[in-house]
Design brief:
single chain; mainly beta; Immunoglobulin-like; 5-stranded antiparallel β-sheet
């Protein structure tokens, strides 16, 4: 038993270490399928020393019911889009959802970090969700949108990832 636990812990080490070299990260590493989840995106620095003035989060197709959290000094803009497959929510058929959330304002100096939060409904299926991010700065921008490809390949600008776990009779909440 101890040997199995040690192997599981050793196998998880690369997964735990992966976010440490990313510069826009997702605070939550896991969420339950078919539940509402608070998702907090952490911006660790600006663009080559330049202050951040906007953060745009692109939501995967299967994420719905998104509501951004207001931040003093920042304006929020959302972009809706048609869903390729409608979903049911509160007994109604939903055919469109928020596809992008942008916070603009600040600016957030390179010497500081900040967090940008949404509440969203996760898909009913378990699996990995990748959230592509665009960080606009006073001078330049960064796209945190690289997805894993080859095993072991290190990404320079990885998209934050959430591992959606199977729901185990989770209660409806939001």
């Amino acid at each position: 038993m101890k040997k199995n636990l040690a192997l599981v812990a050793l196998a998880a080490c690369p997964l735990l270490a992966a976010p440490s070299h990313a510069h826009v990260t997702l605070e939550q590493q896991t969420g339950l399928a078919d539940s509402y989840q608070k998702l907090t995106f952490r911006v660790g620095h600006g663009c080559d020393g330049s202050p951040t003035r906007a953060i745009t989060v692109m939501l995967p197709e299967s994420v719905t019911g998104t509501k951004p959290m207001p931040k003093p000094g920042w304006q929020i803009r959302t972009v809706e889009g048609k869903l390729s497959v409608p979903v049911e929510s509160h007994g109604r058929k939903v055919t469109s959802a928020v596809r992008e959330v942008t916070w603009s304002g600040g600016p957030l100096a390179d010497a500081y970090f900040d967090e940008f939060t949404v509440q969203a409904r996760l898909p009913a299926e378990a699996g990995k969700l990748y959230f592509k991010i665009v960080q606009e700065c006073v001078k330049g921008s960064l796209a945190w949108d690289e997805l894993p490809g080859e095993a072991g390949a290190r990404l320079k600008a990885p998209a934050p990832v959430l591992n959606v776990l199977p729901a185990e009779g989770a209660a409806h909440q939001h």
